[in-house]
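Apologies for my clumsy wording, but could you write out the amino acids of a protein and the tokens describing how it folds?
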Amino acid sequence: MADDVSIELWLDRRRMDALERILHESGTDTQTVMQARLKDLYTQYVPAQERTQINERIEAERLAKERRAEESRRISVFHVTEHGEDVCFKTERGGEFLQAANQLRTYLRKEQDAPPGTFAEMLPDRAEISAEEFDAQVATRMENTGKVVGAYDVDFDKRKFSAVNIMDGWKTYAMGDVSTAAYHAFRKDHLNIEQRWHRFLDKLDGKEITSAGHLNARNFSFADEITDMDDRLNFYIQTDFDVDAAFNTFVCTAENDDWLNVYANYDMSAGTVCDTLEINLHRGDGGEDEFSYTLNAAEKEVLLRKMDEYCMAQNGMSLADYSAQCMNEADDSQMQSPTM
């Protein structure tokens, strides 16, 4: 350790050899014995109160060093679906989207030549995590603290690659498009990192697809007024995207006259987006079905931002301020209601 000091002692070689032989026969060595004797001297001569103070300083320095190491640590998190099995893990080797895409390309090229094992095995330092921790790390990624530099959902069975963008939330692409974009980014050795990013994103431009579990800013546009109901603000989401891919329905077709109403809710008391979207399926024959869509951390964060923007545009105030106004009006209304 950096704060340790060494003590140099001398003893004739012949005496030292004899001592080492005897100690070895007893299962120890000179260094171990002398270290123990030195600790005994320390305990014997240094007062207990001073030893306690020194121990406290050493422990505080150790904890501070661990805290600095943790703060400087940068990880990526993955949810990988492959051969029908799901695994979530974190790693310090995943990197940002560009690096993760290049790892994907490397894996897919090996996949063409011979069975390469699994994608997770490419990252030997990985540590498995729960689905709940993965979602929590996705939320950290959206906060842009720098601690989580990448969050990915890689589905080899559906050949889709999704990555969290700190501004827009999830972005999903066909796996082949991500691999091709990585090829163009790394094809020439002389390119710097900015040039590689430019080529990579340019090749992906316009190729984003809608994917269940990966809704983002382009999927959350609102229409009509914000409705105050049961301590919640209700937002009507326009369905001008591939709702079938998002909600596993069958309405984007000429084969029927079905259509959807999709609603998002904001809990005014908690100050959070509600966990689910409410979906009403209206059938051409007059029938109706209701179901819900569970939002993950990235989707909720993007939806919150979009709600705030829409509230500002509609009412001239932030979502938090408008919620406070609605709750105050509700309280005043209850106080003024006649009692029997």
User: Anything to note?
Assistant: The chain has three domains: 13-70, 75-204, 217-336. The chain has a mean pLDDT of 91. Residues 217-336 form one domain.
